[in-house]
Amino acid sequence: MTPDLYVNARFFTAAKRSWADALVVVGERIGYVGDEATARRIAGPGAREIDLGGALVLPGFVDAHAHIVSTGEAAGQADLWGAASLGDIQARIGAWAGTHPDAPRVRAQGWLHSALPEGGPTRAHLDAVVPDRPVYAQAFDCHSVWLNSAALAELGIDATTPVPSGGTIAKDPATGEPTGYIDETAMQQLVWPALDAQVTDAERDAHLAAALAGYRRAGITASTDMGLDQGDLDAMARAEANGTLTARIVGHWRIQHSLDPAANLARVARAAELAAKHNSAWLRITGIKVMVDGTVDGCTAALGHPYADGSLPEAIWDLETLAPVVTAADAAGLQVAMHAIGDEAVRIAIAAVERAVETNGPRPRRHRIEHLEVVEQADIARLAALGITASMQPVHSDPSIQENWRAQLGDDRVERGFPWPEMTDAGATLAFGTDSPTAPYAPLPNMFIAATRRSALDPSLPPNIARYALPLTEAIEHATRSAAWSCRAEDQYGRLAAGLLADFVVVDRDVFSLPAEELLEARILRTVVGGRDVLAAQMAERP
Fold first, then answer.
1. Do 147 and 97 belong to one domain?
2. Where is the domain boundary, 196, 223, 244?
3. Residue 109: exposed, middle, or buried by beta-carbon count in 10 A (0-12, 13-18, 19+)?
4. Residues 21 and 82 reside in one and the same domain
5. Any idea what DSSP says for residue 161?
6. At the N or C end, where does the chain have fewer CB atoms within 10 A?
7. pLDDT of residue 197
């Protein structure tokens, strides 16, 4: 097997020795990373030398929290990301509908709560643009959906529809009829299954392919899917079987909220079955995903103190319902990932892990909490002591989308939002992801936000709590090494080290020695997965 010798670049390893001058790849793994002279001796005289022209090499980015098939699906919908007003949203939806006259439904993704008038979205707003076809417009955080009258009729949702526990079907106070706004478990149980039933296997395969193509361009070599269902998993398994997976996928099986303890435990057992079945270098099921609360933007995150409007919603899962699920998963050797944005939800998640430790005793475990946007220092210390990973998304702190978030809290809690350094200072592992399609998945702009607390969408905005910015080296480590550790893959990827898989990216400039703004302009030249440049292969396939 002829080794590849990569030279003439700066190699950031995200390992103990942070920098190297050369890299040797043998087959799908790294043979050596270090000084060039040693690399040449190890590679031998017959090695294929690859001169990188002074570029920067990083470990492949690992998105610690994503929804992969949904990311590809959203790419084909009306894009509402960044729409600043109701008129802008309506124009984008109308334009998409006009260019897709044969689409049976109009799907849209990415609207912000702050872009809408007081009173929130209504079906009348959408009926005015598309009266003759169902419209489903997903909010940017994927925790609420906005429907027109045709969509409500298609779903059969009316004034008499029962509301699932933990969700909302907004209704007109005068008539009792649904307004078109549905959130949390009501959306997950009434809207999503109906839409999923309309998607064919071929369409899911295409959505996955679109996401993987984007990953290749962006430099993402692995991703942790946070909320798999059977349709998505089947698409991934088909891609693995036909050799078209170009990013490694680690999945968490979605556990829908239920008041039936037996049903909850049956879903955990199903996740354990899938973990035994899917355990390869390309596709692996590692745990379960539970939605403990909602979002600050939608006033559904569970807080210890009321929102600015005086509301104080309960968590979707209370401790007595959640703890048996976490304990069962822990006993089965599964990782538990718990969406907890508000401080009260974080406390419930931590307490559930404590119950599992108390019940199951000492054992290897690597549980995680997702988002942690509003969290108290005392709880950070607790999660760190329990070894719980803090899985967070810099892109969610982008100042350009913070107006509504800050307004809903309305007090000094906004000055401790997204406290990344407090996690590592307490000794917790901090893993970075994007939660796409709730936000753009490109890693380099995400690193800009992490290193500056400024906006990647509008860099002219002032930073969002500048004291929480991280050194760029640390930010990249959280998006590579720590993200790999968070999904039990630290012995396979996430660093440039001998013996690990040769998963790395080549960036067109040394972003460490340039102004931070260069992260917004930098391009990925190569995306190498298992020693193969999958980006070059993609470019070669273009007509």
1. yes
2. 196
3. buried
4. no
5. P
6. C
7. 87
Domain boundary among 179, 196, 213: 196
Residues 189 and 108 in one domain: yes
Full-model pTM: 0.92
Q: pLDDT tens digit string along 192-234?
A: 889 888 889 999 999 999 999 999 999 999 999 999 999 999 9
Mind listing the pLDDT tens digit for each residue in 278-325?
999 999 999 999 999 999 998 999 999 999 999 999 999 999 999 999
Closest CA relative to residue 451, chosen from 430, 472, 433, 481: 472
State the total domains in the chain.
Answer: 2
The per-residue DSSP string of 293-319 comes to ---TTTT-S--SS--TTS--PPPSS-H
Question: Please, what sign has the CA dihedral across residues 83, 89, 91, 94?
Answer: positive
Domain that holds residue 101: 77-196
Do 89 and 165 belong together in one domain? Answer: yes
Task: Render the burial of 164-193: b for 16+ CB within 10 Å, e for the rest.
Answer: bbbbbbbbeeeeeebbbbbbbbbbbbbbbe
The answer to whether residue 181 is domain-embedded is yes
Omega before 399 within 30 of 0, i.e. cis: no
